[in-house]
Design goal:
Length: 283
């Protein structure tokens, strides 16, 4: 028996993610990593891993894994298995099956010892924008599992609420190009609902709502971009950047979602609505 997990089915999308590649933006390398960082870190803590160890990020369920040895696993984020928010044994030859979560979008599967695929530039994360990291998982893939390096935490269940299925409200701060928009646009951003569209992914949420008109017609030179930025393209429909955000962008950023709230945005499904709370005042 070997410490492995064999992928039998992947659902719509399953990738390997960890804490990402921080500090390499000057080289043109984005951070990437788990979209819902809090959920991924909780999963790792529940099985005695380093908080930023590699886990599986599963979009909308459907993942099926078979254990090659006796392992300990857990899931966090969007609920779709009996092992949710609790460490459970997965015996050699047994299968872990993730169904469709009733709410939320992304589930994190942690295994004691971590997913031990080869790192790229110091991380095991799959970056869908740049193509760095291990490929998107496919049926038949065999994932190595590392050896435990710390004791189990002794926690039977983490009392963490499931992602909500209704409208979400997050805090927003003024962006560096708020002066490109009239007061009406700033008001519209924080007083109306925005629908998450089906074009959203790990790179960002594409939102639909009132078109945010600009007061300037020119274009910007490319500027640095980070997770949580609210960039407004010529359509006037904002894009909220997530884990695989580009390093630079050429459209004005009207605001930033507070970092602590960005994780919750990564659990929103197409069709859910989002509100921004705060003041985005043009200068």
């Amino acid at each position: 028996m070997t410490r492995t997990l064999t992928v039998l089915a992947t659902g719509p999308l399953t990738t390997v993610q960890d804490g990402g590649r921080p500090g390499q933006g000057a080289l043109g390398v984005g951070r990437s990593g788990a979209v819902d960082r809090a959920a991924a870190r909780l999963a790792n803590r529940l099985v005695g891993n380093d908080p930023d160890a590699a886990v599986l990020e599963v979009t909308l369920g459907g993942l099926v894994l078979r254990a090659g040895a006796d392992l300990v696993v857990t899931t966090t984020g969007a609920r779709c298995s009996v092992a949710h928010n609790a460490p459970v044994p997965l015996r050699a030859g047994a299968e872990l099956r993730l169904g469709l979560p009733p709410t939320g979008l992304r589930t994190y599967v942690a295994v004691r010892g971590g997913i031990a695929v080869e790192p790229v530039l110091g991380s095991r994360s799959t970056d869908l924008l740049s193509g760095l990291g291990p490929p998107v998982l496919s049926p038949g893939d065999v994932l190595p599992v590392g050896e435990p390096t710390a004791p189990m935490p002794g926690v039977d269940l983490a009392p963490v609420p499931d992602p909500p299925g209704d409208e979400a409200t997050v805090r927003v701060l003024p962006g560096p190009r708020a002066d490109w928009f009239p007061a009406e646009a700033a008001t519209a951003l924080t007083t109306t609902s925005w629908e998450v569209t089906g074009e959203s992914n790990r790179i960002g949420l594409r939102l639909a709502g009132v078109a945010l008109e600009r007061t300037r017609t020119g274009e910007l030179a490319s500027e640095g971009m980070v997770r949580g930025a609210l960039q407004v393209p010529p359509s006037g429909q904002p894009v909220l950047f997530l884990a695989d955000a580009p390093v630079t962008g050429g459209y004005p950023v009207i605001g930033y979602v507070e970092d602590a709230d960005v994780d919750r945005c990564g659990q929103l499904r197409p069709g859910q609505t989002l509100r921004f709370r705060g003041a985005v005042v043009p200068r």
